[in-house]
Amino acid sequence: MTDYLLPDGMTPAAASRVLARELDVRNGSASVSERAYYDTFDGLLHDNGLTAVWEDGQLALIECDTDRVRARAAMPKPTGPVFATDVQSGPLREALRSLIDVRALLPLVEIRTRERALDVLDAERKTVVRLSIQQPALGRRRLRGRVHVSPVRGYDKALTGVSDALGAKLGFETAELPLVDEAVLASGGRLGGTPTKIEPALAREQRADAAAVVVLQALLEVIENNRPGAIADLDSEFLHDLRVSVRRSRAVQRELRGVFPPGPLAHFRAEFRWLQQATGEVRDLDVYVLEFDAMRSLVSEQVREDLGALLDVLRRRRRAARRRMVCALRSERTDRVLAGWSKLLEELESLPTDERPDARRPIAALAGVRISRVYGRMVKMGRAIDASSPPEDYHELRKQGKELRYLLELFGTPLYPDEAVRPMVKTLKALQDVLGRHQDREIQVATLRSLAPELATADDGPAALMAMGMLVERLEADQQAARDAFAQRFEEFASRQQRELIRDTFA
Amino acid sequence: MSTVLATYNIKGGVGKTSAAVNLAYLGAHDGSQTLLWDLDPQGASTYLFRIRPKIKGGGRKLVRLRSDVAELIKGTDYEGLDLLPADFSYRHMDLALDSFKRPTQRLARVLEPLRGEYDYVFLDCPPSISLVSESVFEAADALLVPIIPATLSSRTFEQLEEVLGGNRGGGPLILAFFSMVDRRKRLHRDVIEQLRGQWPGVLRSEIPASAEIERMGARRAVVAAYAPGGKAAQAYEALWEELKPRLDEYAPRTR
Fold first, then answer.
1. Tens-place pLDDT, residues A266-278
2. Which domains are assigned to chain A?
3. In chain A, positions 104-123, which contact chain B (CB-CB < 8 Å)?
4. Is A153–B49 a contact, with Cβ atoms under 8 angstroms apart?
5. Is pTM, for the whole model, over 0.90?
6. What is the ipTM of this complex?
């Protein structure tokens, strides 16, 4: 499928006449289509060369380069976020589940297109290429007209002939973007959605304060971008991405503390901690709700249904927690924190360096020292852990692991050789998986226990309590399994080879 | 996984090609990816779609699985409906099939690479009982059997039963319908009543004997394209609507 743009000022009717002079065509029907396009906030469909289109009571997943419908399902026009689970079971639901997972499809643009079909014919009067002359519009605003060329299978030569006629003979320009992308740009949107990953461009010899600013401004942008979606509860990933960026910002505040003036830094560290805490409960409950089916599958089939009451309690709690969180995210305090932080970052490089001993150090050297210190601390903490250690010890080690991971992602990857960073990230990730599982189970068990009094008052409370007891047992067993796996993972993470690599690369 | 439907009758001139072409069109019109394989060396379906009755390498190379079948397919004038054209060499298909160890599985094997791409595959078969038809019975999930309202038509069922009797239980679903019906003729009405009494499984929809259908050859198009809303187009629609639930009930055969 290729689109050609009509020359400036050429109307679709004039284009029809020009094409009829050049090609043997048959006029087809004229129609008006109204299509609403959807994608996730971070453009997961666009990343995969796809788009979701609603038209005439059907939502379809379409391949942008071929126009092929990969899957479709009947549904009313979406008025809010659409999750894979909102689509009736079938191929579309399955396709969306693997593409967007827990993200929601959100409205992108609505395009109204007047179309006239033209069939290009061969000597037998058979259609060998399909053309459609289109006049698309965004509301009242007209976009440039197009000729949409669709091949007919088995008639490649005819397609080449039509392409030559449109391009070389008539001088129609090939459209570089699919119509939906052009419409997104025309409506002020961003192609491929709003990125949630940051890729800061850093140089090894760059001043540490300047490098910190690049990274922290990118993180602040992610926080700001995701704040409205988290408040509106469009999907759980807005809050998650916001929190990850807050946590990463806090790691940079801690690890590169010597590039900031101490007074303002102390203030913003406290305020970012507050922001983290104000959003924590909802995120924990989000994880429960999202993972509920997986958690439910831990107990025997006979009692799975009994856990329904538990899900109701979790949802109720989440609603209450969200009310508190939304107040915090909408508050003047949050406005002040983010605006103040942005201002400090803007000014940072111009501030005196008397109280900022690391400000002028090259970032690679400073980040290298921090990576190697945090790694060393983790090795020490991990060696002190044995079978009798309390859960808090595992948790503290995990927190250090997150700190190290952020340092590696934000500064290690852009500044150090891949062959040193990659194995480090690999063994760290393996260790963090075990520590994360251990801590998640710890918190899950504690939360379930705290829910017991509320659950007991529900209609089917007793049955749910029994089922919950079984679930707690399974979760504790899984926590123990994570503990058992810890030693092996830690050994790989803290191996002599790894320690030498860290020393040679970062220290 | 596609559902393979073959329009089949031992007799010629009973409306097999008309049924195959119009039902395949309706399948595609519903939004299903549909392929029609014109197995008849006369190439009537191919002619109706204005496509050249020729495939690269001929029928022998195709059944030897030496051709890339996907490369031989042509799009028709109707979106979603493709054709695997006829070739005059199909007249020797029996001989070509006979040279294989398991000749009757051959057509199913040719279709194998296409089963993920198409929802429906229609086979428009030549009128005969031969190795080709046995191969069709093996490949098809259902046989669509047009019966003309003539006394001798009762033989059609008996012969089909004879042929398919050996693989009862694992064979294709047989879906017969009356074709070329002229309700003004008393003989047609009587024969239909009598045959329905004998074979209550015959579908309720009837395809009329109609000038609209006869014009297909001159118009080289499906009935719905030049006589939409006409009696013939409506009759094919009714037949298709009656067929669909029957096909859904009968899951495609696993091979």
1. 999 999 999 999 9
2. 2-186 (2.40.320.10), 208-506 (1.40.20.10)
3. 119, 122
4. no
5. no
6. 0.87
